[in-house]
Amino acid sequence: MTAAVASRTSAGSSSRYAALGLLARLALRRSRIYYGVWVLALVATLAATVAAYERVVPPGASAELTMKALGGNPTMRAMLGPPFDLMTPGGFTMWRVGTFAAAALAWMAAFGVIRATRAEEEDGRLELLRAGAVGRRAPLAAGVLVAVGACLAVGLLSAASLARTAPPAGSALLLGLGIAAVGVVGAGVGAVTAQVSESARGARGLASAGLGAAYLVRAMADGSAESSALRPLAWASPLEWAALARPYAGDRWIVLLLPLLLAVGLVALAFRLEAVRDHGAGLRQSGRGPAVGSARLASAAGLAARLHRGSILGWTAGIVVFALAMGSLSDAFGTMMKDLPELAEMFRRMGGGAADLREAFYTAMLGLVVIVLAMLGVQTLGRLHREEERGHAELLLSTATTRQAFALSHLVPALVVPTVLLVVCGGLLGLNEAIGSGSSAPVWQVAGAALVLAPGIWVVVGVAMLLHGWVPRLLGVAWGLVGWSLFVAWIGEILGWPEWLISLTPFAALPALPAEPLTWTPVIVTTVLAALLCVGGLVGYRRRDLG
Amino acid sequence: MAPTPPIDIHGLRKTFGSTVALDGLDLVVEPGQIHGFLGPNGSGKSTTIRILLGLLRADSGTVHLLGGDPWADAPALHRRLAYVPGDVSLWPGLTGGEAIDLLGRARGGIDKARRDALLERFDLDPTKKGRTYSKGNRQKVALVAALASDVELLLLDEPTSGLDPLMERQFSEVVREGRHEGLSVLLSSHILSEVEALCDHVSIIKAGRVVESGTLAQLRHLTRTQVTADLASTPPAELASLPGVHDLHVDGTRLTCQVEDSGLAGLLARLSSLGVQALTSSPPTLEELFLRHYDESDR
After folding, report:
1. For A374-399, what is the mean pLDDT?
2. Co-location of B143 and B261 in the same domain
3. Which of A40, A68, A469, A547 has a beta carbon 3.0–4.6 Å from A541's, enabling a disulfide?
């Protein structure tokens, strides 16, 4: 409290923000590649979608049919958001990638703020800066400022590109600023979670949980039947606000007040929290723990189990909630749209999958979840990298622990945990249908369909292991592989890229059950490839210098 | 047959890109020795220790650790040694006690009674989380984990750089006690007083090679004794020409000079004939030895 009082009486606003410009330049310098890649990818995605419009929706298509086919498909509504006007390139783009881009931007901003604030604080670098003539609020303000700048860059560049290719310019600007505003909410979320948790990992987990919940709420609302009481809940999800501003379909500028007010509120809250906590601490004082290690904490494997515990619990909770919520949507499918067989072709072009809506739904959900779980795999294996960087590996390897045992202590969970969660997700997705039909078959079918995709995760983890074993500084390439897979899965199909380019992901060759029939060859080939990558990585890890 | 030296290094080379970290290093630590490994930052001390730990692979030269190959036999050898890094990084979410037990068990076992006694001696609270310890306390965690195991060899890389003087003394005592049990120690440091107080053998490393190695007594022979004397009258100028006497300064009736061991007897005989009223002589410090090596080439 004394600190807060002192700062109020002694310092004006100028000194509280002293050196803000310097810190903002530093934050920009340290994350220019991070933001640069995000900005380019998102602007390019929006521009490419506009360009693809003519091909996806042929000029002759009846407006009514298109709307019915796309807007009425609950899978696509749940994944992408509500369609308002699909008959213009701009309106189509907002629906097809707009909400996704807004969510991605929110994640970028949240992680970017955490990166510039809590991560720097945790590593002790911020302490050095704060010892200089740096205002109390300057570091957080600088992190938020740079993130907001990146959001605006995405919004304005997209608007500029859409103004030419998808007029009118006013709607293009609303689309761009809407997405940017949702991104700024993400910056606020990052600013708050960075105060709450004393580790960057924890802050990222909290921010992901918050944003994930927002995405789930809007997916539930959009995916439920038109008459459902859940539909209006879409307004409760900040990630939906860019779509609800209806660019190209009425242009409701006033809706943008929602994200702006929320963002201001979140940032103000973050500054308040920052003022009442100690440097280096979170909101909760770090408690004491056991004076003696439990019997399980006796080896590299025991340590890894302990280190991954929090992440595994968080991901499990997230996957279970997601699968149950999404599975509950499958009720409506049996009756909807069954009598419109002519729409199958349209679905296929949209990346929606098979003719049977429910099967298409399962396939689409699993195709998305498997890539998200591949991220968990890379993240888990990345711990091996962090342990080495931070000098923990050196401590452990100075004991009787072999390099192999140490590497396996992280590689095994990186392979097993996402696989188990993938199968669990599949089973839970089918649970609702199983309850409705009184047969457990859907649970096993969808769980099996999920398992068939698991070798894709193993290849991604294998690539990460190979990189860490031979050239650890290139570990980021594994993240690139996941990002590429997600990008291709999301819009590769509609961009009309050549088939070979689209199938250049670890997942593309695997049979997409239940929409496609089961073929064993790609499953076996992918599994063998993954095994070779893992073994190759382990061999490299046993040979190279550490630390 | 003489017992195998715990550490036996000959002609060790290690380069990182174009940087030569170790350039033909020789180092032998005999059983039961507390061997000081002296050199400034960047001279190759840590690289040597990390090669001994099997974290880095030697480019050339022979390295024997406890009779084995530190690269190929690392896990088996590590059961018989303990290591304390200079900059200890602990797992932020594990308590100090948990880290000690983990490291001890991963080494092959921990002596519970000794662990608790060491916690007491180092005044360390084992219930705090790794992220809340100060540098010195993180170092204590690593020291307790190392010293609580029953090992033959300790590899200590500037182990007391974060400790206060009281804890440093505790550390010295614990190491000396271990010596009675036949423990061998390689202690890298740039703190000369610590090495002087604790070690019986010293190697000085410079730019990747050992430039001086021997017992403290042997090394002191290489340098000069500082003599200060108050005489009854002004010292005659011819004292400066006595064999083995250097840097002679006269301030009134007080004389200071540096004397080689061979010239000591002659000087003392002359001084006593001149009526010496007060005399102090101090042995050469390690610091002088060290500085001699590091000054000569830099000039």
Report:
1. 94
2. no
3. A469
d(CA A230, CA A84): 18
Of A21-25, A46-50, A459-463, A492-496, give the lowest mean pLDDT range: A492-496
Q: How far apart are CA A264 and CA A539, in angstroms?
A: 51
HEC string for A92-142:
HHHHHHHHHHHHHHHHHHHHHHHHHCHHHHHCCHHHHHHCCCCCCCHHHHH
Which of B57, B102, B112, B156 to mutate to probe the A interface, most A CBs <10 Å?
A: B102
> Residue A6: its pLDDT value, please?
43
In a domain, B297, yes or no: no
Range of the domain at B78: 7-220
| A544/chain B closest Cα distance in angstroms | 8
A5 in any annotated domain: no
Distance from CA of A307 to the nearest CA of B (A): 8
Last residue of a domain, one of B169, B200, B220: B220
Residues of B in contact with A308 (CB under 8 A): none
**pLDDT tens-place string over residues A64-108:** 666 666 666 777 788 888 888 888 889 989 998 999 999 999 999
Residues B66 and B136 in one domain: yes
| A174 & A245 share domain | yes
* Rounded Cα distance, A303 and B100, in Å: 12
pLDDT of B273 > 90? The answer is: no
| B245 lies in the same domain as B104 | no
Both structure tokens of A407: 């590497």
Nearest CA in chain B to A541: B55
B43: pLDDT strictly greater than 50: yes
Q: Is residue A12 part of a domain?
A: no
Which residues of chain A are within 8 Å of residue B106 when distances are taken between CB atoms? 298-300, 396, 399-401
Tally of domains in chain A? 2
- Do B229 and B215 share a structural domain? no
Q: Do A545 and B88 touch (CB under 8 A)?
A: no
- Percent of chain A predicted with pLDDT > 90: 57
A159 within a domain of the structure (yes/no): yes
Distance, CA of A4 to CA of A20 (rounded, Å): 19
Residue B284 has pLDDT above 80, yes or no: no
B99 lies within 8 A of chain A by CB: yes
Cβ count near A500 (within 10 Å): 8
Residue B177 CB contacts under 8 Å (≥ 6 apart), including other chains: none
Q: What's the predicted TM-score (pTM) here?
A: 0.85
Q: What is the pLDDT of residue B149?
A: 87
Query: B85–A390: do the CB atoms touch at under 8 Å?
Result: no
Regarding whether A237 and A327 lie in a shared domain, the answer is no
* A202-241 per-position pLDDT tens digit: 899 999 999 999 999 999 898 887 778 888 899 999 999 9
Confirm or reject contact between B114 and chain A (CB < 8 A): no
Q: Which residue of A has its CA nearest to B93?
A: A307
Q: Do A352 and A487 reside in the same domain of the chain? A: yes
Q: In 3D, which of B231, B233, B274 has the Cα closest to residue B256?
A: B231
Instruction: Give the range among A524-528, A542-546, B244-248 with minimum mean pLDDT.
Output: B244-248
Q: Which residue has the higher pLDDT, A198 or A405?
A: A405
Judged by a CB distance cut-off of 8 A, whether residue B233 touches chain A is no
Residue among B82, B91, B101 whose CB faces A292 most closely: B101
Q: What is the least distance, in Å, from the CA of A3 to any CA of chain B?
A: 21
A49 lies in some domain: yes
For the stretch B118-167, pLDDT in tens is 999 999 999 999 888 988 999 999 999 999 988 999 999 988 888 888 88
- Which of A290, A391, A543 lies nearest to residue B127, judging by beta carbons? A290
Count how many domains chain B has: 2
Element (H, E) at B204: strand B201-206
Phi-psi region of A533 (alpha: psi -120 to 50; beta: other; left: phi over 0): alpha
